[in-house]
Amino acid sequence: MKSDLDIATTLLQKADNDLKIARIGIEHDGPLDAVAFHVQQAAEKLARSKELGAARAAAAAGGAAPAAGLAGTQPSLFPSAEETAVPVDADKIARELRERIEQEVDALALQIDIPDIRTYTDPKLGFTTFEPKPSSDFDLVEQRVRSADLMTAEQETGEALTLEEIERPVAYLAATLFDEVEEFDAVEDKDRALKLASDYLTALGKPEEELGRLVHQYGHSIVKDLAEQVYAHIYDDTKVTHEVRADFIVFKTFSKSIREKDGEINLREPLDNKSQIRRFLFSGIKKSIINRTGFDSDPERRCAIALEDDTEVLKWVRPPANQMPIYSRGSTYNVDFVAETATNRYLIEVKARDELGTDDTKEKARAANGWCQVATATKGGKPWSYAIIPDDAVSPTSSLAHLLAQAVNVLGR
User: Fold this and answer.
1) Are 349 and 388 a contacting pair, CB within 8 Å?
2) Model pLDDT, residue 392
3) Which residue of 11, 100, 154, 230 is 20 to 30 Å from 167, comparing CA positions?
């Protein structure tokens, strides 16, 4: 038969399992009645284990003296399980479990409902059909050999040369065009290249018997001109699709290398050497489920203070690397901050002003805007939006509204 200690231990383990199931239900929008049931079960098991612990303590206190008739009985060589059992401190266990429950509830209150969205891209270039228009006349010019006497510097012009010609001018131009336009595929775009070369020569309006000599004389310039027109009619036809893998991301613990001495400091403590900011871990954070984090720049640290102090910001988080990936052209983009107010949710990027116009910044903005559209459509409720804040506009005393008012739409540039 199990002892009271065994039963109490089993009850505590089952109570812990009930709490885990309840937390999973809360994290994944499970039915509230099922969540409430498991919380109630945990409470009842905790109360029962406490009763067993109290009964055991009372029995130990009242039954220490042996019965008189057994005073001369030979003691057993092996102590019983009851004699070797470690007393259960029911109050301590209940207190620790209660503190754990409170910590779980507090953490859930700071959790932002961030969906796990995966993005898949099918890179493809589109081509708009057009009629080539030569940018020059490309008239045939007579060619002669000119010679000079090195002693007297006298020059002499010889007779006109017979112009060489390209035997198949259309095929020659099409083949050369593939060297100029890297986006053309030799198999898929063969017919297109031949048609462009043919249309270009037709647009010149020259007699057909001149075309071979004309391409020999101006072939390089013709291909350059045609390639520029081709590039003007190529567009990005990449297909982007999204998959919502989960309605809720649970951030995991993360590792970070910091200074061995004084590597953890308060968020509000400025650094003398800001270039060393990546070697520190910052604490003193109250409104984020991750209460200690690192930064890549001091403007990011100042932005965190602004989010922490703004009363309109309910909660915010700096997602650990690769735990909230936004997929952009086959690579992952880690946004700087996620913030939530009473009405909106935001992805926030702090960016150096001289990097706002780069292709990389624009591509990440497209990916983040697409993510926000999918997240808003998936979760409903508070809409998501993306904002890029110039680093020199970030002040720790700014409100989120003031920062957003200075956000730059890089895709409108």
Assistant:
1) yes
2) 96
3) 230
